[in-house]
Amino acid sequence: MQSVLKTAKKIRTMEIRGAGAIARAAASALKEHALSTKTDSLSEFNKEMKKAAQTLLKTRPTAVSLPNAIRFVTRYQGDTVEKARKSIVSSADEFIKRSEKAVEQIGKIGAKRIRDGDLIMTHCHSAAAVSIITTAFKQGKNIRVIATESRPMMQGHITVQQLSDAGIPTTLVVDSAMRYYMQDVDLAIVGADAIGVNGCLVNKIGTSQLALAAHEARVNLLVAAETFKFSPRTIFGELIEIEERSPDEVLSAQKRKSLKNVTVRNPAFDVTPPEYIDLICTEVGAIPPEMAYIIIRDYLGWELEELGI
Ligand code: RUB
């Protein structure tokens, strides 16, 4: 369990973060676990894999690509440990390859929506959103970016570092400056932790505010999301859980002690309704949010079968 426990800790503490990276890390940990498990008994092996999957599933509740990755890897076949192990290794490798390729492909598709001279606003850090922006820049488009800090964990610092390394002129602003700058913005681009069957987007807290400000200013909102971010379980009416993280990330325990009548809340994500989204850019094409069901049916159909639909 060493690799699984190590990865689970890194995901929980956000050393590994961003929905895509979390999912790929979980797939890789399951592969390592399958390779290192010593037992010859298939039922023992199955039990161990189940335990590993549960440990990883519990790390962060919102990024749907995490359960999607875990289910993709653990629906292995084989009547011997050796065959089961082989099946897990090949599914994990396939998941990671598909996910990495998806980020690249989203970059190519999304970049077509960026025009020369555009000022883009982004929030938090999304590898898929950064892929779109850097691809457009590499194509020679003269673009600039406004990136928000994304309190309390400041993932915006990762975004500005990556955009700066790519040579893109970037401005870092506090989250509350979103609406102030929106009037100058041409396009807003964000990533996704989850997409529901109705096309709603779950992403870093503040995304729905950005969407609202973009809608008011008639700025299109483009969402960069691999098909693995879509949630088959929302077809069953299940809601996507919004993670609430420790108040320590917002205000130290010591400071909170002196504020006897104050409660600190720290939701990590929020929900943006589909009517504020122009397009969801996936690796299989840019779709309107209304087409979310089609993506789930056509690309996550194996999950629906398991759910009995
Ligand atoms: C990260 C976040 C990102 C999505 C998409 O939140 O909200 O926008 O996960 O990222 P956190 P990617 O930092 O809390 O994990 O495109 O890299 O999958």
Question: What does it look like?
Answer:
This protein is α/β, with parallel strands linked by helices. It folds into 2 domains: 2-102, translation initiation factor eif-2b, domain 1 (Four Helix Bundle (Hemerythrin (Met), subunit A), Up-down Bundle); 106-242 and 273-307, Translation initiation factor eif-2b, domain 2 (Rossmann fold). Helices cover 46% and strands 13% of the residues. The chain has 12 helices and 10 strands. The chain has helices at 2-12, 19-36, 42-57, 65-74, 81-111, 127-138, 156-165, 178-182, 207-216, 253-257, 292-299, 301-307, and strands at 119-122, 144-148, 170-173, 187-190, 194-195, 201-204, 220-224, 269-272, 279-282, 285-287. The strands form 2 sheets. It has a 7-stranded mixed β-sheet with strand order 3-2-1-4-7-9-10, with helices on both faces. A 3-stranded antiparallel β-sheet has the order 5-6-8, with helices on one face. Helix 1 (2-12) packs antiparallel against helix 2 and helix 2 runs antiparallel to helix 5. The chain is globular. 46% of the residues are buried. The model has no long low-confidence stretch (mean pLDDT 96).
